[in-house]
Amino acid sequence: MRIVDRLWFRLPAVPPHVRRPGGELPVATPFEVDGVRGQAYGDGPNVYLVHGWGGWGLQLATHIQPLVDAGFRVVTYDAPSHGDSAPGGGGKGAGTLLELAAALEAVVAAQGPAYGVIAHSLGAPATALALRDGLAVERVVFISAATDFTEALDQLEAFLGFGPRIRAGFLRRFEARFGPMDSFRMEVLRSAIAGPLPSLLLIHDRADRETSYQGSAELAARWPGARLETTEGLGHRRILRDPDLVKKAVEFLAERAPAERAPGRQERMPE
Fold first, then answer.
1. What are the angstrom distances between the C-alpha of 208 and each of 56, 99, 112, 128, 205?
2. pLDDT tens digits for range 125-169
3. CATH label of the domain that carries residue 88
4. Does residue 267 have a pLDDT over 70?
5. Domain residues for 188?
């Protein structure tokens, strides 16, 4: 049943008008890296906004002005096959977690060192993959983090109504391309990150129907010094637009910014 393979890697269609930010933004400097298109705002330590599966860079736009006001340079972009960026290796409308991680690494290489990252949903394991592969970041915010791929597979199984034989076949094909699905669990990725882990703030809604709140709670318990901010009734996407949570994310990133690059100074990081 190859339809499982097609649906697993297919991205939801998002019309351009949906991707327009709701409010005004600072003046942007557009850029393109290997077909990945994005914008940078402000000056200061770089904070990268990493969207999730089927998302787009400006999905996290409510964070941009507060971060710029706090003295950060904000870099946002659309991953391959997302938004305005070129298609990835699977063609238009298809993608992989590995492409999301590679896009972050490529953008950081072109735009300058990452002081912080704010990642939503599948952007969280994409960030963890990049950290595992050597990306240096001091502070990270995970919002509605996807922590276990098998949960998404359970949802797809329930939607299509297939059984154990088809599931096993899909997992064999997945493993042949990418390795065991369990190797992408957040806890496995966390344990594979060399050196000190960045400071982490997790934000998750108990009623999130797309990613497991329990996954974030367990990650917070196993990530030294991590904090968990629990919300009620904001779900998977409205949580990105809550002004109190945006403030908490910005304050967390600004907590220990290096003195010579402290928020409020308008110096740009070397590139």
1. 19, 25, 34, 21, 5
2. 999 999 999 999 999 999 999 999 888 899 889 888 898 999 999
3. 3.40.50.1820
4. no
5. 3-258
